[in-house]
Amino acid sequence: MKYGSVVRLGPNELSFIDVQAWKDIYGHRKAGKAEFTKDPNFFDASVNGEQDIVRGDNPTHSRFRKVFSNSFSDRALKQQESLLKEHVNKLVRNLTAQAKTGAAVDMAKQYNFTTFDIMADLTFSESLGLLDGNDYNDWVRAIVNNWQFIVVMRMLKSYKTFFAIFSWFIPKQWREERLKMFNYAAVRVNRRLERGTTKSDIWDQMQQRDASITVAEMHANAEVFMVGGSETTATLLSGLTYYLLTNPEKMGKLKQEIRTACPRDEDVTVERLQGLKYLHACVEEALRHYSPSVIGHVRIVPEEGGSVCGGWLPGGTKVSVPHYVAYHSPTNFARPREFIPERWIDTDGEFATDKRDILQPFSYGPRNCIGKK
């Protein structure tokens, strides 16, 4: 390894790939100890200026987490099982029809259709119909295109002078796509609240808790749910599909496990799938290679300073655990660049020294991803 477990990225920014860093940077703090706060330069504000469950300060995040926790629980997932099956069955029908033509299939696109349709149904009780139309609509196209804008702006914010200059030259299309992305979510929230629903969705669960949340806050959070639960999941599924197709022996092993446990279509349930060890191992290994975020989510050491991995850091220092680097370091995993689901099952053999706890694709601590299940 060319570099050690700590790398300086800038005058006041450090990157860590040690397991302990997750606890020190993102974990729960002892009584009286200040939290490492999120770097405001890393997270763009919502279009309407409201805080949301990702970008909000700690008190706001805690409030939103209580409001939405029921919507992302195991119980809620099981309640939505028929909805999930409905969309997955559409995906299977599409793939079957396309396979008969002999033409290549863009699996990343098909997975995006599926995850966006599912998240729209869960968030607004209204599918986007992407699987039916077999193409992106303007909203999803805006979300996909907006990633370029987000990445560029996030990088430039670290350099105030360059950012100030660049802000004058931001392409009009980027600004329009960002606004379109938010407005689509806001319109659908309003429509959902006006018409009500007979189905159980995020807002139904929220209203059952009699939550004090404004419509503007609903708009901001709806955008987060749509982006966070769709494209990232589709990327993971695309990566897993690629690795299984290029490793036929592992594909065969997974098929045997699934078909043994679920000989009929109706046997495929959330509860039964959760008990399949090799399937779980494949997903874990895919998350290691295709984490929802490849870079580290930057936190700032509190004013009084703090300790990370045994080293004292002054207040104001930016720190993070970069997912891709941590998951592909030979200090954390044997044969790190290979797809080996067995490493999550055979913990006594070749992979006995793997540091599995370094894998935290949904982050760690009180602000980890609410939708990781």
UniProtKB/TrEMBL annotation:
<dbReference type="InterPro" id="IPR001128">
    <property type="entry name" value="Cyt_P450"/>
</dbReference>
<protein>
    <submittedName>
        <fullName>Putative cytochrome p450 protein</fullName>
    </submittedName>
</protein>
<comment type="similarity">
    <text>Belongs to the cytochrome P450 family.</text>
</comment>
<dbReference type="InterPro" id="IPR036396">
    <property type="entry name" value="Cyt_P450_sf"/>
</dbReference>
<keyword id="KW-0503">Monooxygenase</keyword>
<dbReference type="GO" id="GO:0004497">
    <property type="term" value="F:monooxygenase activity"/>
</dbReference>
<keyword id="KW-0560">Oxidoreductase</keyword>
<dbReference type="GO" id="GO:0020037">
    <property type="term" value="F:heme binding"/>
</dbReference>
<keyword id="KW-0479">Metal-binding</keyword>
<dbReference type="InterPro" id="IPR002401">
    <property type="entry name" value="Cyt_P450_E_grp-I"/>
</dbReference>
<dbReference type="Pfam" id="PF00067">
    <property type="entry name" value="p450"/>
</dbReference>
<dbReference type="InterPro" id="IPR050121">
    <property type="entry name" value="Cytochrome_P450_monoxygenase"/>
</dbReference>
<feature type="binding site" description="axial binding residue">
    <location>
        <position position="369"/>
    </location>
    <ligand>
        <name>heme</name>
    </ligand>
</feature>
<dbReference type="GO" id="GO:0005506">
    <property type="term" value="F:iron ion binding"/>
</dbReference>
<keyword id="KW-0349">Heme</keyword>
<dbReference type="InterPro" id="IPR017972">
    <property type="entry name" value="Cyt_P450_CS"/>
</dbReference>
<dbReference type="GO" id="GO:0016705">
    <property type="term" value="F:oxidoreductase activity, acting on paired donors, with incorporation or reduction of molecular oxygen"/>
</dbReference>
<keyword id="KW-0408">Iron</keyword>
